[in-house]
Each structure stands twice: as C-alpha cells, then as structure tokens.
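User: Here's a structure from my thesis project, written as structure tokens. My advisor, Dr. K., wants to see whether a designed sequence matches the one we expressed. Can you design one independently, without my sequence as a hint?
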C-alpha cells in the first residue's frame, strides 16, 4: 500500500466530487479547473491505496471504498471547521472548564444567582463546584485542582498570594436558642431583627468553627472578647455553618454567624444583632480569590461577579 500523504483540502475535494458525481460541476464548486481536481483525487487514491470512484464516459460514482470514506471525511472536515472557533472561544474565556470552590455561607447569599447568571451568559463553560473551607481550598489551589474560590475571612484579611475581589461585607450576628434567657427582655418584632446587649451574652459558651478553617475570623472574635474583658468560651466546634446553627437549636451554645446566614431558618433558633460591643462592630468578608495568570475563563467569571449585585438581603 502506498503511504503518500494527503491533506484536508484533498478530503474536501473528494467530498464535493462525491456529492456532485461530476468532475466539471465539482471543479466549479471548488473554484478550480477539472484537471487539477482529477490529479488531486488520484493522489488521494494513491495515498489510501484504494479506488474511490468508479469512472466511465457516462457517469462517476462512489466505489465501495469511497462509500466508506465519505462519512469519515465529512466528520473529519466538520471537526476541522470547528477547531479554530473552539480555540478562539477558549482563548477568550467563552468556553472551557471552571473549577470553583466556595464556603457554605455564601450559598445563603448571592452565589446561587451569580452561578445561574453565569451559566446563562456562558453556556459553553462547564462549571465544576466544590464546597470547601479556606484550609481545604488552599490545599486544592496548591494541587492545581481548583481555579477560583469564595473564602470567608475577617475584614481586610484576604489570604496572601492571591488576586481577589471582595464580594460581601456583612455584619456578624448572633444565633441563640429560641428559649434563651436573653429574649425575655427583648420585645418580639416581625419587622426587624432584634437587638441584644453585649453584657447579656458575652459569657455565653460558643458553638464555633475551628481556627484552622478561618483563622483571621477566629482571631477577630478572640480579640473582641478580650477587649470586652472576657475569654472566648468554646462549647462545641463544627465546620459547616448550617451545622453550627443546628447545634445552637439543640442548646449547645450561641454562635456568631454572617448575617446572610439568617436566611437559614431553623426551628428553635433566633438571630439578633448585638449592641454595646467594645471597639468596632463585628464584621466578616467574603472574597473571590484566584491565582495570577489563571485561564481566561476565570477572568470571565471574575468580571461577571464584579458586575453582579453583591449586597445580601437583610433578614426581616
């Protein structure tokens, strides 16, 4: 069998001739004269080691080998035609894969709407989502397993070494059991979140996340209690915010949680702002972080989030 090379142009010429079954008409479609077309088909047959057309003075028809080649050639040409647009789309961040991690608290804020809007705007981007705390995300970044992540931290304490955009700046509010004594002196109101006094809750044991998963926020809480002359008392630790709220409902203690988490309505739990804290009011931030030089699709997502509404709705 001959092993002479052939190219996509020859396959395209073969496909047009197979559709026309006439050298003259095929040559006209290809904007060439008939002799070069005949020579090109002959070279292709030599390269493949098979006659592709049955020729006579009256007709041109595909041979059995040509019948086999035609669908394969069409598929190859379709792939070749799609190659350049696909590469340009990936280079522009319009297609590809985005591996995104997130802390659980952001799912009670704007993240679902951001993801829905991004899917609608960039349907050719495959989103891979993974819930993970900051410590896990740092490991995933180091292993090259995620492209971007939403992390929770104290104000201004974005993990070093990342590009970032702050997407949420919100108060920390307190979750308490429904039957907690602090509610007795607080009027119930459906119109707004109630406010408790720092002196009434400062000695309460806390249900809190381990320091390893949000060190800056943990340290901010320790500092706030220290400024108020108290020592932070840890009754129980839990990783996920919804687990923390569930433990509060079981009477394990009280908890500081991002205000957006008040969308998680759990039986046996009420949320309140706490007034009279020493120093500044307790706040937290959520930032979208990614490595410099990330793929174009990451920048597309960053731009989408920058342009999207960020302010979480306040609990009523």
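Assistant: Designed independently from the structure alone:
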């Amino acid at each position: 069998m001959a092993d002479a090379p052939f190219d996509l142009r020859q396959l395209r010429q073969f496909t047009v001739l197979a559709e026309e079954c006439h050298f003259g008409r095929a040559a006209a479609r290809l904007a060439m004269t008939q002799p070069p077309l005949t020579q090109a088909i002959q070279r292709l047959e030599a390269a493949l080691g098979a006659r592709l057309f049955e020729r006579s003075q009256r007709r041109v028809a595909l041979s059995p080998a040509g019948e086999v080649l035609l669908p394969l050639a069409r598929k190859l040409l379709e792939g070749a035609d799609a190659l350049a647009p696909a590469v340009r789309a990936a280079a522009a961040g319009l297609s590809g894969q985005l591996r995104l991690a997130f802390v659980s608290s952001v799912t009670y804020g704007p993240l679902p709407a951001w993801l829905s809007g991004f899917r609608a705007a960039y349907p050719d981007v495959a989103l891979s989502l993974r819930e993970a705390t900051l410590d896990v995300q740092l490991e995933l970044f180091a292993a090259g397993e995620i492209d971007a992540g939403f992390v929770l931290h104290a104000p201004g304490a974005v993990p070093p070494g990342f590009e970032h955009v702050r997407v949420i700046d919100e108060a920390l509010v307190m979750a308490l059991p429904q039957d907690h004594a602090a509610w007795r002196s607080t009027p119930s109101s459906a119109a707004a979140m109630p406010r408790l006094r720092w002196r009434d809750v400062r000695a309460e044991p806390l249900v809190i996340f381990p320091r390893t998963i949000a060190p800056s926020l943990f340290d901010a809480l320790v500092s706030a209690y220290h400024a108020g002359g108290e020592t932070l008392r840890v009754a129980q630790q839990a990783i996920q915010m919804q687990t923390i709220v569930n433990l509060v409902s079981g009477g394990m203690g009280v908890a500081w949680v991002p205000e957006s988490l008040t969308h998680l309505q759990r039986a046996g739990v009420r949320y309140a702002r706490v007034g009279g804290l020493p120093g500044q009011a307790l706040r937290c931030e959520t930032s979208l972080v990614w490595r410099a030089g990330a793929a174009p699709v990451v920048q597309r997502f960053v731009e989408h989030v920058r342009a999207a509404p960020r302010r979480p709705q306040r609990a009523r």
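When you compare it with your expressed construct, this may help: Residues 222 and 232 are 6 Å apart (CA to CA).
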